[in-house]
Amino acid sequence: MPTKSFIRQLLLLRYKYISQKNFVYILSTAVGLLTGVAAVTLKNITYAIQSGLEEGIIFSKNQLYFILPVIGLFLVYLLAKYMFHKSMTPSIPPYIKRAIPSLLYALLRQKGLLSYKLIYHPLIMAPITVGFGGSVGLLGPAITSGSSLSSNLSRILHVDKKTRTLLIACATAAAVASMFKSPIAAIVLAVEIFSLDLTFASLLPLLIASISSVLTSYFFLGDELLFNFNVTEKFNPRDTAFYMILGLATGIASIYFTKMYFAIYAFFDRFNSRFTKLIVGGIAIGIMLYFIPPLYGEGLSFTKDLFEGNYLHALGSNPFDNYADNIWIVIVLLIGFTIFKAIAMTTTFAAGGVGGVIVPTMVMGSALGNVVAKIINNIGLGHQISEANFTLIGMAGLIAGVIHAPLTAIFLIAEITGGYILFLPLMITVAISYMITKTYMEHTIYTRELAERGDLLTHDKDQTVLTVMTLDSVIEKDFIALHPTMSLGDMLKHAVSKSSRNLFPVTDSKGMFVGIILLDDIRSVMFDQSLYESTTVETFMHQAPDYIIYEKDDMHKVMKKFHTSKAWNLPVIKDNKYYGFVSKSKLLTAYRTELINFTS
C-alpha cells in the first residue's frame, strides 16, 4: 500500500506541475539510464564467465572448449525448466522466436505490455549462453531487458500506448548506444526497426535516451569500446569497383544467412522435446568449434584481430595449423568461418540459447570483407587494397542485407571508427547489398513470420492502420436473424417492426448463413396482406455480394472485399456459422480514428 500511495502522489504531482512533453523527456532519460545499466550488467556478467573459462582452455592446445556450449545450453535448459518455467509472454505465438519480433508483436497486439520477468531473464540466460561459447550476441538481450523496463515503468505511471511505444524504441536506442557508444546509429536503428515517424516529437526522446545510456556506459566502463578501430587508410577512388564487388558478396551472403536461419529452425522444429534440441544443437556446435574455434561466443576478438592484420591469432588453434603459412588455406578457413558462423548462431538459438543476431552478423561480415580483400590482393592483379577497411565495410554490408537497416549500418561503422573517412565506400557497399537482398527477400529474419501472419508494422501508414485494427472492433451483431421457412407476416411482425436495420441475415436451424434480405427486397409487397402466409423468407432471400471469413480475413482483405464488391454491409462467417456484419461506415470510422492516433 505505501508504494501505491507514493505512486499516486507522484502522479498527482506530475499532472499538476509537469506537462506531457516534459514528462516524456524525463521518462526517456530514465529509460536511457536504466537500459544503460542493464547493458553494462549484461556485458560484465558475460565477460566474467568467459574470463573464468578461457584461461587454459579457449584458443589453446587443450581443445576441451568444444564441450562448453553443451554445458551452457544445459544450464539454460535447467533454468528455463525450473526457474523460468512459466512463459515470459504467454500470449506471444510460438512462431515468434527472437527478441525484436516479440517486441514488434507486443507493440501491435499487446499495447506494448511486457512481462516484468523479461527485465532479468535475459541478464541471466544470455551471459550463460554466450559465456559458455554460444555463437550469439548480447545486443538482443539488452534490448529485451531495456524494453521490459520501459514497458513496466510506463504501466506503473499510466502512460498511454503511443508513448509506451516511443519508450520501448528509446530502450532499443539506449541498448545500442550503450553497447557501441554510437548514439546516432542507435537512433537510426530504432526508427528503422519500429517504423517511427522521424519528427521532433520522437527524435528528441530517442536522443535523450541514447545520450543517457552512453553516459552510463562511460561511467561504469570508462573509454572501453566494444569495437575500437582507427582508420589509417583513406578511401581510394580506384577501389570503387572492389567495394561494389564487396556489396555483391555481402548481398549474396545476406540471402544465405537468412535462408540458413529459417532452414535450421525448420530442422529443429521436427524435435518435440526441448532436451533433444539441446543435445543435437550442443553436439553440432561442439563439432563446429573443434574445427573452427573462433565460432566460440560473440566473436568480437576475432574481428579485432582481423582488423589489426593478425589473422593467424584470429583463426586460433585448429587442425589446419600446419598449413597456416599458405594464404589460400587461410582464405579457405575464413570462408569456412563465414559459412558456419550463421549455422552456429542459429543452432545456438534453436537449441535453446538466448542471445542476439546483430553482433554475430557483424562478425560474419567482417570475415567476408577480409576474405574479399585477401582474394583481390592475392590473385595477381598488381593492385593492393586495405584489408582493414574491407573488414569494417563488410560488417556494414551484412547488417544492411540481413536486417534491412542500411542507414544503421552506415552510421554504426562510421561512429565506431571515430569518423566518416569511409563514408563513401560504406554507402556504395551498403546500397548494393541492400538492393540485392530487398529484391530477393522482401522481409528479414525479424519480420518475415510477422508479415506472413499480418502482424507487421511498417512505415506505410495505411498498411499500419489496417494492421493495428482488429476485426472484432468493427463487427456488429444487432441484426435480427431470419429463417428460410419463416412467413412474410412473421418476418414483418418479429423482425422488420422491431429492427432499426434495413438488412436481415438468413440462417438455417444450425445457424449456418444461407443469405440476406434487404428491406428494399420486400418494400413493394410488405403491405399486401394476401402474401403474409403464402410466401416465405426464402422467396425474397438472395446471396450476399461477398463474405468475411473470421478465421482467415485480416483488415487488409476486409477493406479489399468492400472495394471489389461495392457493398455497404458484408456478413461475417465464424466456424462456418453466421457471426455478424461489418458495415463500411463503421469500418471507415474506425480507420479514421486509428489514423488520427498515428498521425497526431
UniProtKB/TrEMBL annotation:
One of its GO terms (molecular function) is chloride channel activity. The chain crosses the membrane at residues 23-42, 62-80, 118-144, 164-191, 198-221, 241-268, 275-296, 327-344, 351-372, 392-413, 420-437. The keyword Transmembrane helix applies. It is found in: Membrane. Residues 475-534 form the CBS domain. Its main location: membrane. GO terms for cellular component: chloride channel complex. InterPro entries: CBS_dom (IPR000644), CBS_dom_sf (IPR046342), Cl-channel_core (IPR014743), ClC (IPR001807), ClC-type_chloride_channel (IPR050368). The keyword Membrane applies. Keywords: CBS domain, Chloride, Chloride channel, Ion channel, Ion transport, Membrane, Transmembrane, Transmembrane helix, Transport. It is a multi-pass membrane protein. This is Chloride channel protein, CIC family.
